[in-house]
């Protein structure tokens, strides 16, 4: 059993705490949150105890730190945990500020750090990648990533989110890098505020398309909206020289109702806690493997690269120009 | 395309295919099969019984033939594009004022896309916000075709640019296109591209992405997704049949329709049916000369964007790549 602690008892902290507590090779030895009540409630739920970061980092029996606190604290907690010799599992993004994230690279690029790009652990997307890597449909030429949220977040969230590209599309930038097999060299993004004028008043967009091109000429389109009107739309199509591989949406169930009006399927699994439940479990299992000696599947450099693409897309959407990396 | 439209016209109630105009000897058998006779263009246009002309000649002859037919007072159906040269097309526009001219943007007549448009117009998904058009050819054309094609955007994407205008309900105000030669290096040597993505944005902020490749590897991929304020409309591919083979290896569906002749057979019939209505004065052409200019201008803007590696902010200006 590897002892780990978790920082941040919010929504994503609950997911990771439950998965860590349930994992046969992990022991959730403490929960840390600035809000004492939140830490106590989560610790009680998963059979853990409340602790502090200082105590956890000083405890030689604690081997891993799961960082699920607010984005602004990710870098500092990662650096402190890494400096204390702990393995780190940090939620995305590493930071909202690319320069700040770059200046921390020296201390974190070599660290045993897993960045929480959970979609790489989704069984559907893993199967898609395995088909691509298997070479049965030739080499990849282009990619379509559809990533549409069911409903817009409250304006208060948008104000501190870093904007659509850094908050939401960053997942897709990571998927694009993972699947394209080459780094994008040009970024063009176009955004509109069509869903909620309050989002536009905050200087953000809620509807966007981003086009990436790699040095080898591979193309990728990312579709984003903050409100689909039909659930959490999460699909990938990878076009290759010998065909196409497609990962479709996951429905609430496979039940269909057939009537005079047509064929009605169940709704899409609504939002990330349901749609990516298995991915979150698999990512925690990977962290357990890291504690057993496996290298991190997603490291700090991946976080930097995704953030650089998000920053380029933000710039492109603002200026209307193509950004060359 | 004459072999698609000729038989459809011959079979269309309300139309009689009287003449075939084609100087090549092999046209005689084709005309005979359709119950038509071979005559020179002047004779066909001089026959007062002739009310309509279907133009399926090579692209560089479309405009000349259309001008002659319009001058003779005939209703005209012309294959797309009107011409590859936008300036020439614009200059000829006054001759088409008041003419009954239908441009062969066949996809506007596809039953799948017509249904999608009906649902959109009926408000099934609220207000349209963005659009994704997928148009992938099954296999690259022979390299000999490329130099006369006008390039991927004018030859191929032009269909999608017309669909985008038709569905968006607003004119695009910025055009960005990015392209590569990944399918056939010979296409690249001819100065063209074979893989492209185009992004359009309208004045009110509606977005559209067009996905194109010359070779899909799995048939003729023709899909539309329209994203609205209250949901999404999706027109999927049409499969050759509905049979699935389910084994230990998984669930295998039939291939999708292999190419345009099969996929758009209904659309080609419907557009000739529409032309019959135009000839008889029962309908105004659904896509006319102005639509041809607008789609060609957008195609030029795409090519310009790729060559200059810049966003084209004024797609309605003449821009030669």
Order of helices and strands of chain A: EHEHHEHEHHEHEHHHEHEEEEEEHHHE
Outline the biggest β-sheet of chain A. 7 strands, mixed
Oligomer: heterodimer
Instruction: Please give the alpha-carbon distance between the first and last residues of chain A.
Output: 44 Å
At the third CATH level, what is the topology name of the largest domain in chain B? Dihydrodipicolinate Reductase, domain 2
CATH class descriptor name of the largest domain in chain A:
Alpha Beta
Question: What's the number of domains of chain B?
Answer: 2
**Which runs of chain B of at least 5 residues are low in confidence (pLDDT < 50)?**
none
Largest interface: A-B, 38 and 41 residues
Looking at the overall shape, the CATH architecture of the largest domain in chain A is 2-Layer Sandwich
In the CATH scheme, the class of the largest domain in chain B would be Alpha Beta
**Estimated helix fraction of chain A:** 25-40%
Number of helices of chain B: 12
Helix content of chain B: 25-40%
Given helix and strand content, the structural type of chain B is alpha/beta
Sheet/helix structural class of chain A: alpha/beta
Rg measurement of chain B, Å? 20 Å
Mean pLDDT of chain B, rounded to whole units?
A: 95
Order of strands in the sheet with most strands of chain B: 7-8-9-6-10-11
Brief write-up:
The complex is a heterodimer of chains A (325) and B (321). Chain A is an alpha/beta fold and 325 residues long. Chain A has helices at residues 11-22, 36-46, 53-58, 74-83, 98-103, 105-108, 123-134, 155-160, 164-167, 169-180, 197-201, 272-275, 277-291, 300-319; strands at 2-7, 26-32, 62-67, 87-91, 113-116, 140-148, 184-192, 207-214, 219-225, 233-240, 243-247, 256-259, 262-265, 323-324.
């Amino acid at each position: 059993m590897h002892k780990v602690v978790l920082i941040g008892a919010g929504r994503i902290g609950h997911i990771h705490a439950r998965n860590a507590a349930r994992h046969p090779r992990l022991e959730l030895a403490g929960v840390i949150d600035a809000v004492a009540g939140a830490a106590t409630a989560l610790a009680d739920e998963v059979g853990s105890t409340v602790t502090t970061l200082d105590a956890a980092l000083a405890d030689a029996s604690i081997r891993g730190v799961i960082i699920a606190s607010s984005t602004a604290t990710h870098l500092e907690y990662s650096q402190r945990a890494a400096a204390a010799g702990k393995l780190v599992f940090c939620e995305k993004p590493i930071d909202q500020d690319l320069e700040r994230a770059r200046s921390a690279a020296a201390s974190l690029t070599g660290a045993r750090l897993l960045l929480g790009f959970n979609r790489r652990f989704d069984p559907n997307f893993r199967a898609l990648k395995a088909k691509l890597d298997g070479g049965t449909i030739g080499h990849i030429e282009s990619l379509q990533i559809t990533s549409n949220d069911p409903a817009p977040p409250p304006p208060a969230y948008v104000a501190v989110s870093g904007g659509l590209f850094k908050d939401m599309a960053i997942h897709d930038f990571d998927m694009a890098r993972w699947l394209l097999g080459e780094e994008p060299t040009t970024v063009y993004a176009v955004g509109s505020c069509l869903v909620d004028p309050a989002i536009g008043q905050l200087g953000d967009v809620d509807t966007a398309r981003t086009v990436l091109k790699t040095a080898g000429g591979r193309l990728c389109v990312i579709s984003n909206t903050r409100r689909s009107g039909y659930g959490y739309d999460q699909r990938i199509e990878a076009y290759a020289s010998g065909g196409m591989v497609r990962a479709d949406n996951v429905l609430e169930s496979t039940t269909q109702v057939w009537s005079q009006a047509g064929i009605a399927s169940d709704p899409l699994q609504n939002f990330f806690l349901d749609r990516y439940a298995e991915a979150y479990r698999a990512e925690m299992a990977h962290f357990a493997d890291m504690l057993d000696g496996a290298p991190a599947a997603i490291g700090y450099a991946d976080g930097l690269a995704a953030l650089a693409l998000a920053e380029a897309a933000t710039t492109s959407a603002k200026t209307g120009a193509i950004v060359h990396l | 395309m004459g072999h698609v439209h000729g038989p459809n016209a011959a079979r269309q109630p309300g139309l009689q295919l009287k003449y075939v105009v084609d100087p090549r000897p092999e046209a005689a058998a084709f005309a005979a099969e359709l119950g038509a006779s071979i005559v020179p263009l002047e004779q066909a246009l001089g026959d007062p019984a002739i009310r309509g002309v279907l133009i399926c000649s090579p692209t560089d002859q479309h405009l000349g033939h259309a001008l002659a037919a319009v001058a003779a007072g005939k209703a005209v159906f012309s294959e797309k594009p009107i011409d590859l040269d936008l300036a020439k097309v614009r200059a000829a526009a006054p001759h088409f004022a008041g003419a009954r001219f239908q441009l062969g943007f066949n996809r506007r007549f596809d039953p799948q896309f017509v249904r999608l448009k009906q649902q959109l117009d009926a408000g099934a998904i609220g207000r349209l916000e963005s659009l994704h058009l997928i148009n992938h050819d099954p296999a690259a054309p022979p390299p000999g075709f490329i130099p006369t094609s006008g390039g991927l955007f004018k030859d191929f994407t032009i269909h999608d640019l017309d669909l985008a205008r038709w569905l968006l309900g607003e004119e695009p105000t910025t055009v960005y296109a990015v392209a590569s030669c990944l399918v056939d290096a010979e296409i690249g040597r001819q100065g063209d591209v074979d893989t492209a993505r185009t992004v359009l944005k309208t004045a009110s902020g509606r977005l559209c992405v067009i996905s194109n490749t010359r070779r899909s590897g799995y048939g003729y991929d023709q899909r539309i997704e329209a994203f609205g304020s209250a949901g999404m409309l999706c027109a999927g591919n049409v499969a050759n049949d509905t049979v699935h083979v389910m084994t230990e290896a998984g669930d295998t569906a039939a291939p999708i329709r292999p190419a345009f002749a099969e996929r758009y057979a209904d659309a080609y019939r419907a557009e000739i049916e529409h032309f019959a209505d135009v000839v008889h004065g029962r309908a105004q052409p659904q896509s006319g000369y102005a639509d041809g200019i607008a789609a060609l201008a957008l195609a030029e803007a795409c090519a310009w964007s790729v060559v200059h590696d810049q966003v084209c902010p004024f797609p309605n200006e003449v821009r030669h790549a």
